Amino acid sequence: MRPPRFGFLLPGVILACQRAPAPTSVPVRQAIEARNANAERWYLNGQVDSLAAIFAEDAWHLAPNMAPLVGRDSFRAFWTNALRWGRWEFDHQTQDVVTGGSLAVERGRYALKFTPGEQAPMLGFEDRGNYVVLWRQDTDGEWRVVWDAPVSELPPPGPPAR
User: 85-96, pLDDT tens digit by residue?
Assistant: First the structure.
């Protein structure tokens, strides 16, 4: 009696156990850069609902010098008020994107200029620094921010001059 031949099954089993290939970073980076360009325009135009749609329902926005904004609704509520305070000019420069399945990590640089309006609770300022953003491709195919962590390069402002 001959032993059964399972050699033809081995390649099939190995192929079936492999992960699906990760999306290449080029189209993901292009999608992220397009989202960033839209966000810059939406901040300038006060389009808070469009901005909020970039964030996942369970997003964490870790802005400097404040408690985290947890969830899309918290982000929307904060920026609804903040956009009334004046003009927010952001510039995002993506430096790298690493992908893995439905997740992508973006690393980049940002510059921010805030020009206060009449209702502003603070003075105008400029900031610049680096950021890391974790993106997730949701079931609708859109890439959304899950974690957003900007890190300023500038020291915090000192006490007001006397």
Answer: 999 999 999 999
